[in-house]
Amino acid sequence: MVPGILIALVIISQLYFTMAKTATQPYRIIKTEKDFQIRLYPPVTMATISMDAKTYKELSSTGFRKLASYIFGGNQAKKSIAMTTPVHMDINDSQSSMSFVMPSMYTKDNLPTPNDSTIAIKTTIEEYVAAIKFGGYANDDEIKKYAARLESALIKNGIEYYGNFRFLGYNAPYQFWRRKNEIIVNVRWK
Predict the structure, then answer these.
(1) What is the pLDDT of residue 2?
(2) Is the model's pLDDT at 106 over the cut of 90?
(3) Rounded Cα gap, residues 69 and 87, in angstroms
């Protein structure tokens, strides 16, 4: 009886997380290809933490904890800020970063100041990116594999890209089903 109840609770929680509405960073699809999309992202405000981390695992645990603390009241106003998707990660060999997109009602000027001085509040610029999707749980190997697939598709299609390939994560770690991840990179688009 108890195992049946536990299984039912897991299924119900997964359905909840799959159907729960979380604000998502807006973008406009410019072009859809077989393996990727070209998107236009308007400027948004982000809370960003930069670290010397060189792997997904190193950046995700510490970075997420610090940024989550900020939006759950770890700021001078002790104000909770809604979680949005995706979480942005730029993992590289020099300085990696993780960013939370702030809800659209916030700007750099009206967000509460973080208690953690290593968190920076920034407004992005409009950017064109290429994006490729993949499911399941992300790790360094999957991120590298899909970055290589996106790079190959861009080269094949004659699309010039620049900057680092970045990871976008959309799901809470405890959501098992219907996970969504993306790799993006800036592209030159007219």
Answers:
(1) 54
(2) yes
(3) 14
Task: Give the helix/strand (H/E) hosting 69.
Answer: helix 56-71
Residue in the block written with tokens 């536990």: 6
Could you tell me which of 62, 73, 144 has the C-alpha nearest to residue 113?
73
CA distance 15 to 174: 12
Span 108-122, average pLDDT: 97
Tokens standing for residue 38: 């070209």
**Which residue segments constitute the domains of the chain, with CATH numbers given?**
23-187 (3.20.80.10)
Give the global pTM.
Answer: 0.87
Q: Is 153 exposed, middle or buried (0-12, 13-18, 19+ CB in 10 A)?
A: middle
> Hunting for tokens 């999957």 — which residue is that?
142
Mean pLDDT in residue range 69-78: 97
Cβ atoms of residues 132 and 36 within 8 Å: yes
List Cα–Cα distances, 52 to 49, 95, 123, in angstroms.
Answer: 10, 5, 22
